[in-house]
């Protein structure tokens, strides 16, 4: 139907999350029409990212430096480690600007169905970091899914003989949320964890 | 929040149709995690497309050759020219495999609101092609929108002194469509254009 260059571009674009075959065709046309302003700059940005981005050997974050900018920043609180599933969760927490400690990216969750065990996640690295004398608290910030919470329980067990407090994110009513639209589990959790006004 | 390389990649990805800031972040992470299998091949495919893809000087199609593979194919019916708004429409018609003539890409529609006049579209090229003795029919396959149909009327007027039949796509019930869900305009058109069973 069209040249093999366009077909290959469409085929690769359709592998991006959120783009199906139809939207990949639209994206390819959009790119080819904007050769100077978008296609070439995006190709360059991808090449640069492919060359420059590394995984931080300390925390698993993605950055051009290893250790990453967060691990290397002496102003971050070295006593706090926040454990998250993926780098996207780290970005979400950083956008809030309300956490000044360090991170640890697990790289997923335990999943019997998908055959992901403890050795497939960066758990050993976390235990090693938690043993350091300056670390006092490990915050488990896994997703509030069955897999996330299973993983959180497993890590709590593994951290039992480290001298750290283990905490987790609060469950409750999302800011801006309406009670009538919340599920029973969230509402029950919010009621149980009620605080003085 | 993350390195400037990642930020730039996210910022450029968010300019693709169908990707907002959140899905652009997801796409960037997806790409960086699949460096060998997706990120580098996609960057290469984009560079190749940026260098190789040209606009066909005859019909406005996108291809690595000029004239494009369709215009250069002697087996295509040189008597038929199908006029479409965009290259995506040409791809859609080619996927059906039911048209064996040539195409002419207008590059948009007339739009008083957006200030797009006849000189911004490839109308002059169409008139020149329609004057050729071998051309007998021009099929107007613009979208069934107000802008598309306005453009179709304008082109019909401009083709008045060319020796060609001007036709348009049929309106009617889409294949697989249910009458109860169709708009009145489509149903009226389908009734008016009814055919012997």
TrEMBL record, chains A, B:
<keyword id="KW-0234">DNA repair</keyword>
<dbReference type="InterPro" id="IPR015967">
    <property type="entry name" value="Rcmb_RecR_Znf"/>
</dbReference>
<keyword id="KW-0479">Metal-binding</keyword>
<dbReference type="GO" id="GO:0008270">
    <property type="term" value="F:zinc ion binding"/>
</dbReference>
<dbReference type="GO" id="GO:0006310">
    <property type="term" value="P:DNA recombination"/>
</dbReference>
<dbReference type="InterPro" id="IPR000093">
    <property type="entry name" value="DNA_Rcmb_RecR"/>
</dbReference>
<dbReference type="InterPro" id="IPR006171">
    <property type="entry name" value="TOPRIM_dom"/>
</dbReference>
<keyword id="KW-0227">DNA damage</keyword>
<keyword id="KW-0863">Zinc-finger</keyword>
<keyword id="KW-0233">DNA recombination</keyword>
<keyword id="KW-0862">Zinc</keyword>
<protein>
    <recommendedName>
        <fullName>Recombination protein RecR</fullName>
    </recommendedName>
</protein>
<feature type="domain" description="Toprim">
    <location>
        <begin position="79"/>
        <end position="174"/>
    </location>
</feature>
<dbReference type="GO" id="GO:0006281">
    <property type="term" value="P:DNA repair"/>
</dbReference>
<dbReference type="Pfam" id="PF02132">
    <property type="entry name" value="RecR_ZnF"/>
</dbReference>
<dbReference type="InterPro" id="IPR034137">
    <property type="entry name" value="TOPRIM_RecR"/>
</dbReference>
<dbReference type="Pfam" id="PF21176">
    <property type="entry name" value="RecR_HhH"/>
</dbReference>
<dbReference type="Pfam" id="PF13662">
    <property type="entry name" value="Toprim_4"/>
</dbReference>
<dbReference type="Pfam" id="PF21175">
    <property type="entry name" value="RecR_C"/>
</dbReference>
<comment type="function">
    <text>May play a role in DNA repair. It seems to be involved in an RecBC-independent recombinational process of DNA repair. It may act with RecF and RecO.</text>
</comment>
<feature type="zinc finger region" description="C4-type">
    <location>
        <begin position="56"/>
        <end position="71"/>
    </location>
</feature>
<dbReference type="InterPro" id="IPR023627">
    <property type="entry name" value="Rcmb_RecR"/>
</dbReference>
<comment type="similarity">
    <text>Belongs to the RecR family.</text>
</comment>
<dbReference type="GO" id="GO:0003677">
    <property type="term" value="F:DNA binding"/>
</dbReference>
